[in-house]
Amino acid sequence: MSKIIVTNGAYADRKENTLTQAVDETRRILSDVQPVYDAVKAYELLKNSSNRTAIEKCRIHDPHTILARFEHLVLQQPTALFERLAKGVHYDMMAFYSIALRLINRLSVCAVLTKVCDALRGEKTPEEQQHYQQIAANRLASIHDALKEQVTALQSDFHEEQIRHDIQVALAGPVKWNYGWKEMADTVREKISIKYYRHNWVVMAFESGEGNSDVALEFAGHRTFFFRLEEYSFVLHAAVADERCSDFARTFSNGTKLTTLFNNDELFHNILAEEKDLARCASNLKELLLRYNLPANFFIGILQYRPNHAVSFEPNATSYHIEHLRSPQTRKLSKTVIISWC
Question: Cα(14)–Cα(91) distance, rounded to whole angstroms?
Answer without folding.
Answer: 13
